[in-house]
Automatic annotation (TrEMBL):
<dbReference type="InterPro" id="IPR000836">
    <property type="entry name" value="PRTase_dom"/>
</dbReference>
<keyword id="KW-0328">Glycosyltransferase</keyword>
<comment type="function">
    <text>Converts the preformed base xanthine, a product of nucleic acid breakdown, to xanthosine 5'-monophosphate (XMP), so it can be reused for RNA or DNA synthesis.</text>
</comment>
<dbReference type="GO" id="GO:0000310">
    <property type="term" value="F:xanthine phosphoribosyltransferase activity"/>
</dbReference>
<protein>
    <recommendedName>
        <fullName>Xanthine phosphoribosyltransferase</fullName>
        <ecNumber>2.4.2.22</ecNumber>
    </recommendedName>
</protein>
<feature type="binding site">
    <location>
        <position position="20"/>
    </location>
    <ligand>
        <name>xanthine</name>
    </ligand>
</feature>
<feature type="binding site">
    <location>
        <position position="27"/>
    </location>
    <ligand>
        <name>xanthine</name>
    </ligand>
</feature>
<dbReference type="InterPro" id="IPR050118">
    <property type="entry name" value="Pur/Pyrimidine_PRTase"/>
</dbReference>
<feature type="binding site">
    <location>
        <position position="156"/>
    </location>
    <ligand>
        <name>xanthine</name>
    </ligand>
</feature>
<keyword id="KW-0660">Purine salvage</keyword>
<feature type="binding site">
    <location>
        <begin position="128"/>
        <end position="132"/>
    </location>
    <ligand>
        <name>5-phospho-alpha-D-ribose 1-diphosphate</name>
    </ligand>
</feature>
<keyword id="KW-0808">Transferase</keyword>
<dbReference type="InterPro" id="IPR010079">
    <property type="entry name" value="Xanthine_PRibTrfase"/>
</dbReference>
<dbReference type="InterPro" id="IPR029057">
    <property type="entry name" value="PRTase-like"/>
</dbReference>
<comment type="pathway">
    <text>Purine metabolism; XMP biosynthesis via salvage pathway; XMP from xanthine: step 1/1.</text>
</comment>
<comment type="similarity">
    <text>Belongs to the purine/pyrimidine phosphoribosyltransferase family. Xpt subfamily.</text>
</comment>
<keyword id="KW-0963">Cytoplasm</keyword>
């Protein structure tokens, strides 16, 4: 998506070897106009898939997921990473390992908000190693919900996430695909026909 690529080139900073900082429109300050465009792009691509619900993980997946939900007319559920006062049992849980931080976190969704009737679109801000998506897939399987596809804002194509999820047969739409960071400059995957 041209608009997103331009924004990444304008406002993104490459940190070290493999991290992109996008704090001024996605991960800290949020640009609602851009988020709505991203949400609409997910909704257009997955429009005919009979999606009943969008699933994401707090925190940074929520903004694009909400705009996709608005456009598709379906509710959005975010998996929680932290223990909640009011959400204590009746949960689907999965462990998410972070290669970046070398930590494992539990994510949880209330059984009230996901069922075997649901056909789910998974959305997240970044796809790196695919651990967050794998946790959401695990939770969908526990609920016997089916998965329509995966929408990602920024994919780092040089990490293993896409490959592993595609190998499991998932349809992935990534709005920006980063091939590499070369001398601190973001290089995008050249898409056919674009
Ligand atoms: P994975 O799910 O693809 O395996 O990701 P990984 O463990 O490598 O990353 C852990 C966290 O870092 C996730 O966010 C993920 O979205 C984010 N992340 C991964 N690569 C990048 C990057 O290049 N830039 C930025 N800005 N984030 C990246 P999180 O901890 O769940 O954060 P949040 O959603 O609460 O903001
Ligand atoms: Na993040
Ligand atoms: Na995230």
């Amino acid at each position: 998506m041209k608009l997103l690529e331009e924004r990444i080139l304008k406002d993104g900073t490459v940190l070290g070897k493999d991290v992109l900082k996008v704090d001024n429109f996605l991960n800290h300050q949020i640009d609602p106009v851009l988020m709505q465009e991203l949400g609409n792009a997910f909704a257009d691509y997955f429009a005919d898939r009979n999606i009943t619900k969008i699933l994401t993980v707090e925190t940074s997946g929520i903004a694009p997921a909400v705009f996709a939900g608005l456009a598709l007319g379906v509710p959005v559920v975010f998996a929680r990473k932290h223990k909640s006062l009011t959400l204590t049992d009746n949960l689907y849980c999965a462990s998410v390992y972070s290669f970046t931080k070398n930590t494992t976190n539990e994510i949880a969704i209330s059984k009230n908000f996901l069922s075997s009737e649901d056909h789910v679109l998974l959305i997240d801000d970044f796809l790196a190693n695919g651990q967050a998506a794998t946790g959401l897939i695990d939770i969908c399987q526990q609920a016997e919900a089916s998965i329509a596809g995966i929408g990602i804002v920024i994919e780092k194509s040089f990490q293993r996430g896409r490959q592993e999820l595609e190998a499991q047969g998932f349809d992935i739409l990534s709005l920006a695909r980063i091939r590499a960071f070369e001398n601190g400059i973001v290089q995008f995957v050249e898409e056919e026909g674009s």
